[in-house]
Amino acid sequence: MQGFCPLSLSKWIGEALEGSGWSVLEILEGVERGDFYLFMHNEGCMVGEFIVSPRHKAMHIFAAGGTLKAMSDLGPTVEAFGRLHNCDMTCATGRKGWLRYARKHGYSPGEPVIWKEL
Hints:
With 118 residues, the protein is of the alpha+beta class. Helix content is 39%, strand content 24%. It is built from four helices and four strands, in the order ααβββαβα. A four-stranded mixed sheet has the order 1-2-3-4. It is globular and about 40 Å long.
């Protein structure tokens, strides 16, 4: 991939994970195991996973970093990947600032996410 640099990947993922409690190493190990999926662009990346419930199978993006162009370019790839794996929806968890961007790309706000370590 032209312009791709492993240090950039770590930077993009690291910025996306700020405050999440996850480390870049944990994400890359999860990708290696097949627990997470890495979608790469020469200006950014997204990390996702499948979430399965009795009603839905979702392609869930939980980390995204890089330029808005990269996010726009990766969106259709992520959605196609989800459809290929029988997902009926795509969702994302992220900072509130992503909501304005996401609305422009057909996403609707959902319920807020809250969490507590056990």
